[in-house]
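Fig. S4 source data, part A: sequence.
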Amino acid sequence: MISQNDQRRIRALPIWDSAPIPPERDLSNIEDVKGFTDVARIMLRTWPFLRPLVLGYWREPSTSPDQADGNPASNDGWAYTYVPFLVTLLAILGPTAGWLQMGSSWQHDVLVWNGAAMALLCFIIVASNGRVFLVSIAALVVVASTANLFAILVVSGWQDNLAIGMVTVGCLSMWLLQYRFCDGNLQFRIRLGCHLVYYYMLVWLALLLGVITGLFTVDLMNQSILQSKPLTPFLANFIGHPELADGVVETLDAAQRGVLQWNYIVLTVLIFVVTYPVVAAVLPYYNIWIMQRINHSLRLALVERWHQLSMRYHSNHRVGDSVYRIYQDSAQVTAIVAMLIKVSQQITQYTITVLFVAALDPILGLMGVTIAIFAVVWALWFSPRVRARALVARQTNSDLTSRIQESLGAVKLIKAHGTQETEQARFESDSVIAFNAAHHVRSLVAMVGIIMFSLAAVILLGSEFMMALWASNNRETFAAVLIGLIGLSFVNWNLGAFQWAQRELFDTSNQVRGIVGQWTTAQDMAMGLDRVFEILDIEPDVANAPDAIAMPEFRDEIRFDRVSFAYEPDRPILHDVSFVAKPGSITAIVGPTGSGKSTLVSLLTRLFDPGSGTITIDGNDLRQLDIESLRANVSIALQENVLFAMSVRDNIRYVIPDADDNTVQRAAYVACADDYVSELPEGLDTILGDRGGKLSTGQRQRLSIARALVKDAPILILDEPTAALDAGTEHQVLERLADWGQGRAIFLITHRISTIQKADQIFYLDAGEIVERGTHEQLLRLDNGRYRQFVETEAALRRTRATGVDP
């Protein structure tokens, strides 16, 4: 028999029907969701976190790693004007040394002119800036890449590769090596730490090696070993069997094919030994290391900004939402970078594959391009819908995280009132909503993949049929001359050409579908990053002034002058508050709940800035003081006794981590925490439970006071410092505080009459205004005074609690 709860869950998590989403989280109107340019802008915003791993850092050979210049854009007279002359010299070296013989063949002539073009572009780069500089850099990359591919694939021998490789290294030196004259001395510096560049180079090198070796191994297997056809001259010379080349023999016998089989095995094993460690171990490890560094940088920046945000922000946002953004959403930066790396790799491989396939027949290249066109059109439809559903999924998961955090934080309250079932029902409701939102986006992503696969399959089946016909008719390939120059036998359609083109077209389809899948995932990543950047974009309400100064030593007074404050414009909290507090004085602030007491002292630590009026310390406006230096001079013990799951010693010295044991023990003594701390199993080294759960409320309160005292600041704020203490302990704490507080300004927020009586001045706050002020005796003499009524009410309540008789 299915229970009622289980039936409700089944209805809430449907398999086929549309899962319910709350109206406030519904984004059915996809026009309100960010568009393509917004997504691109979000991704580009990851650049500051990628920049250190792209541009690296400069280091002079004579300096240690700690002295390296971490600013990749730092110039300070550094230059690379030597590069054009170096590249020109290297370009001339090739023909001079006989590595590239001008006029001997058109292939050598092409490489010589490529070297000259690279030298000319280097001169233009050095002499230009702005758009011309960027265009010249792009042109240099294209020319250098083309020249190296041409030397590898078209020109036989190794000397041409050496010549053009040296010219390319000379061009790279402008990126890697710079010089300057300083005090008449020649200095050099080198660029290091460009890990993303290194990673891309390894990826593209492995990709190029895979394409080239794949071409020749397919040719060797399908044409020579399986069909007994002679090797191309290039391949025969490469494997060391020129006697098996076309023109030397007409066909291969069984013994010769057996020799080639062993050569094929050795070549395959050699390729595996060279590429497998890089592809299977080095690249994945390097990728993880880079991604974690980037994620670490973003997370640090996010938490740093989170700490800078005002209490107004934190009051309006759930803790679970912030946790989800910092931990989960911030991780999307590494996913974005990984996606960009993979997509760039797939686009590169796709482009190379389409060009190679088009060399066999342009129709095949057009089919490969058609798959990409279908993908773009399909992406225009699904992208905004994925973004909308992904945003809902992240928001609902953030709500679920907040629900978990709130439930765990209130576990004592839940158990005390027996509301486990209520909290379980609320959690189930949020969990169902999060599940349904995730189901919405993932079902759409699955549909995107299925439709893309179906479109690609239709094109691939048609192309496979055409290639089979061409191979059976031995049709000449489109770029037969170029293919012959490369050293392949694919000048006509044959078994090797068919199998290689079939595999490459399928790879093309996989690459396009991979790009579509990455783009689909990127929509979700962008929504997560956007939620992260929302926090980074918030400017703190309280910030240092450009000319902020360190707080001088506190000597004279703290003055509030006509201070007003409101959290919202239509909800004033404080109005026209003025008073003065002197060193060595105790100021008590009392009043009904919601009168603005805690807000008043929060202004003193610049958790907020006043809307009007000024707060000064020895004549210095708080807004002109450096925030860190101000807060270093103010200690505060909050009404909420927040403790951490670490030792008693570390809890006390939380704000002064390097405080010695004498300072810690002195603070514990003044707060009257020394008596019970000494009785703990390991004394100051006793590890507390989460939020100090091993201690009573009074013990936690005394530790909170000790933590404020260990700072030894000239200004001390105590918010309900003795509320959880018995009368005897309270009296002892106040006596020790009075001795400790000599020369310090102490502010008390309290309802305990015995505590208030110790104050030198008392301010009665009501509705954000100081309605009465004076000493305890002075205020008691006021007829119908608010403070007098407060004291009489507290005294009556105390008698009622003591006697059990209602007066």
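Fig. S4 source data, part B ends here. The longest strand covers residues 558-568.
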